[in-house]
């Protein structure tokens, strides 16, 4: 999970600060030293870390003081703001021109996730009402065209290709005409990548840029490559002038060095993050929410947005009512698990819930194995309707029967009942939080 190492260290540092009624300059220095170490361990660019530390120090000992906060909270607030600022502060949106078609040129090195991201992006923007056309302009990697065609077919989005015998510039030009005559208002061009930055590739990308004048040039880089991704971004930006970066494989990146350095080093904002292999595993990149995650404040907004995009509105309303009425049963629990599975891997979802985000707590909860869900289903199915509604009153002999019926053990039945109880509590918190957000309140 992204930032898990950094999150754990920073949260530990700040736990120590929070407890203090007064902070001396030495306390702040000590904490900042730890912050610095944590950022360097997370593979954040050295210069970025130095600037960061200086800024926080200046603000923490300067006039930037609010009487409503304890000194510890104040330092945390400053670190939060500066972390968010490092990543661009506010969300940077993709530039979709009002005069169709919008042309988006995807660039990057091989293996970074360019082809997958082109498909993900077209899918996401289609949900927003666009009519995308994918363009296969990578004529060098043998399987690239086929790969894009397969992804396009999965999504039912047309893919324009002219095989690998034409030049990428000709393909891009023809694709634009094709889009116009088929009233496609968004053209996403998957260009060729190489293993390393090379001059020939850059020259070719410059020619495509000159030929189709894209509204948006997005660089796709692999978050797991850390500072290499930052260097790649710098080079591409110098040659092509990037409008933004898509950081892929954030789901596998535990350090977060690229996420925290790219904007600060290159000036290019991260616009989207890839968070899995599936075609809906892409999110707009929100610097403030990322800072929330790092400092263990969870990312409830992203979770709610995901839920709203994936859940059946009627069901959500029904569920909300049940939660409020404290009438959430095991059957709902099971149904909820099915729904939640649609949101993505469980670990990832849990990381967004405040208080559950830190790696330490996750370890306490025990590994969550998606295969266990099969057992959950079997156990619930072995219960009578009365038992499902009276989970507190299930006797030992009933538990034995349920275990036998589901091919599990009494311990497993007990564990499920305990998890259900925890979920019920969490759902209650979640509902309260949602209420607060709607009221315009703050969480944290
Ligand atoms: P390209 O050479 O840049 O076009 O890269 P591909 O689109 O072929 O992606 C390379 C590999 O990375 C594929 O196996 C993708 O499934 C995988 N990939 C792409 N984006 C993500 C992501 O956000 N998370 C994960 N876990 N895998 C990704």
From TrEMBL:
PROSITE patterns xrefs: SRP54 (PS00300)
Residue ranges of every copy of the SRP54-type proteins GTP-binding domain listed in the record: 269-282
Cellular localisation: Cytoplasm
Main location: cytoplasm
Keyword terms of this UniProt record: Cytoplasm, GTP-binding, Hydrolase, Nucleotide-binding, Ribonucleoprotein, RNA-binding, Signal recognition particle
Gene Ontology CC terms, in alphabetical order: signal recognition particle
Residue sites binding GTP per the record: 108-115, 190-194, 248-251
GO molecular function, one term: GTP binding
Origin superkingdom: Bacteria
Subunit structure: Part of the signal recognition particle protein translocation system, which is composed of SRP and FtsY.
Comment block on domains: Composed of three domains: the N-terminal N domain, which is responsible for interactions with the ribosome, the central G domain, which binds GTP, and the C-terminal M domain, which binds the RNA and the signal sequence of the RNC.
Name used for this protein in its record: Signal recognition particle protein
